[in-house]
Structure prediction request, 694 residues.
Amino acid sequence: MAVRMRDIARLAGVSEATVSLALSGNSRVSEATRRRVIAIADELGYRPNAAARSLRTDSTRALGLVVSDVANPFFAELAGRIERIAAAQGYSVVLCNSDEDAARQDGYLSRLLAGSEVDGVMLVPAGGMTPGILAAGAARARMVLLDRPIAADGVGGVSEWLRAIPVVRGSGAAALGEVAELLIGLGHRRIGIIALPQTTQIGRERHDMMLGALTGQGLAASAVEVVSGDFRQHSGELAVERLLASPNPPTAYVAADGLMAIGAMKALRRAGLRIPRDVSLVGYDDAPWFDLLDPPLTTVAQPVVELAEAAMRSMYALLAGETPPTTALTCQLVRRSSCGPPPDAHS
Amino acid sequence: MAVRMRDIARLAGVSEATVSLALSGNSRVSEATRRRVIAIADELGYRPNAAARSLRTDSTRALGLVVSDVANPFFAELAGRIERIAAAQGYSVVLCNSDEDAARQDGYLSRLLAGSEVDGVMLVPAGGMTPGILAAGAARARMVLLDRPIAADGVGGVSEWLRAIPVVRGSGAAALGEVAELLIGLGHRRIGIIALPQTTQIGRERHDMMLGALTGQGLAASAVEVVSGDFRQHSGELAVERLLASPNPPTAYVAADGLMAIGAMKALRRAGLRIPRDVSLVGYDDAPWFDLLDPPLTTVAQPVVELAEAAMRSMYALLAGETPPTTALTCQLVRRSSCGPPPDAHS
DNA sequence: TCGGCCCAGTTAATCGATTGAATTCGTGTC
DNA sequence: GACACGAATTCAATCGATTAACTGGGCCGA
Prediction:
């Protein structure tokens, strides 16, 4: 079917070994032979058989990317950036959607790593520690965690390598501080948080950060209401409905994720509330069209390009046998017009 | 490193061949042996080595997906859907971003197919016929075209297999007819089209459809101004700027692509025009957040889920040696509020 | 009792590229 | 003239799973 090394060897009048050596630039072949071999190879349009090469060299030049959902604009952009960087180095990217489901995630990990489909995996962990991650770690798989760290609690002897897994993520502390300052400065005293699942490390962390920022500005913790969603748009809608149902609903809402922010916006609008006149809203993540929303959404933007670069840098380091550090890149608060003073301030 | 068949064989006290047979459910092994082998296999967490299996069976259980950009919401959703369907059948998806660049696309095709990295490719062609597609066809690669057909002009003897390549796409004719009816019904008499590159078959086609729909409603062809973009948001902005610069700018705009519609919206707003009061805008493709835009965007929505399903159905048929037909799924006009009467109708 | 047959399993070749060890050949040296 | 040496190339084993062809043994019928 396809062109094999044997065909080139035959045409060039040399052995397969020589062809291989020539193509790989090994100095054991003469310059003349190399040139002849290469000429024939690309005249025939030779492409090495990926499976054979992988089998022999135990390296696939492919990387796995497990995200919770590529349709989430944040992960879509991240995936695109990562693919481009990987392609530039000759790596393929195998895309996987875990749908925030730990079992599916583990299935992918096992398929990709245990079956040696890829040389390494970049994982957006769905939830905390799972058997699959544990197994991958035990097998000393090359893995970098994206966007979310995972807690090491309860897992005994593994913590050493767990700590060695590089994490690449945005750090929202500063931006979240600005959010608190902004909202409290505008006069909001009851704030609703549409949080991530509190079963995840990132969920608890972002929640604590937010709460810390608000109380740090002098707000009582009791003035903050929290409802957790699950990263999906619909859960953002539900969360807002729950918050609105409280006897004294918040006047400002902060979503911990881009899609949930969209959902929150939908629910608020459906409830007849106008943003920012009646309520204020702050989102997370950013997209080119966020400023075309009604109203343009104030949001905590993650540095996606840098995140992708850092992730690939870590991956390369891992492949080179190094132990890359964890990376946290600071997020920026993008001020648009979805925040204003609370309605009581009008009256 | 990983568990190999040999390890299972040793523990089970049988040959590797028996293990392979047992695991594949071949009837040449006794029920008792099969059970023992399977038990040991999953106790050890055995995963077949993908490279070895591919090499031997000449099938990778992986599919290539070449899109122009996953960050485009339409392709992101398509990619996600496709991945999910593929995963359910045990197929991996290798993601590639061509960036609408024919050379990059051909590079991917060659890598994926000639190197037998994948069993088949689903391609959103960037432009028309290219050497890479030609080569893939000559090598009788399994390929399905997504979203866009390619013209067969100028390519001699290849047209037979070219015609046999299944294309899975949305058909916007009916919806575009409704768009024409809507805009002309509202009173618009000067319409701007933000078209796709006219070098692509899909670009010319969508353009002709749009123009045909408008003239079919009695509009003079001279009343329609066309500026081509390149699928990207920025080109949508430029196109609108160009159209606005004309002595008598259109009162309604139709974008042939989702991202360009976003760009158009930005440019219109930047020009101080309000939608739909001053100008009307119709987009292409849809996303969950299109109705949160300011104003909610009227658009021609492609049936993404069905597109993904049809694409995978075609791929499976191809893998089974069949010759699936081309599929065209009808798009729906989603009426929201970005269209209104032209401003002259006010005065 | 012997040949044929089937069942359960094994042997060994194979897929295509890589690479350490072996080989060939020409040249230089004593 | 024998030998060592290095450069260029070839040999052959290897990666792990699959499968056609073969083997051994139990059973049946003649």
About this structure: Residues 14-18, 21, 28-30, 33, 52, 54-58 of chain B lie near DNA strand C (CB under 10 Å from a C1').
